[in-house]
Amino acid sequence: MSIVDYFKFCWETQKWPPPVPQTVLPPHLLGDEL
Fold first, then answer.
1. pTM for the model
2. How many domains in the chain?
3. Domain of life here (predicted)?
4. Whole domain around residue 14: which residue ranges?
5. Cβ neighbours for 33, distance < 8 A, ≥ 6 positions apart
6. With bands split at pLDDT 50, 70 and 90, how would you rate the model's confidence at 7?
7. Within 13 Å, how many C-alpha atoms sit on residue 1's CB side?
8. What is the average per-residue pLDDT within 7-34?
């Protein structure tokens, strides 16, 4: 599952914002995806 698909899944299941460990996704990566 890609990061975008994960965000869409969290959005559709009303689990927003999604629990994303900073060690896995640094802030600059999140900015690029959003």
1. 0.37
2. 1
3. Bacteria
4. 3-33
5. 3, 4, 7
6. confident
7. 8
8. 65
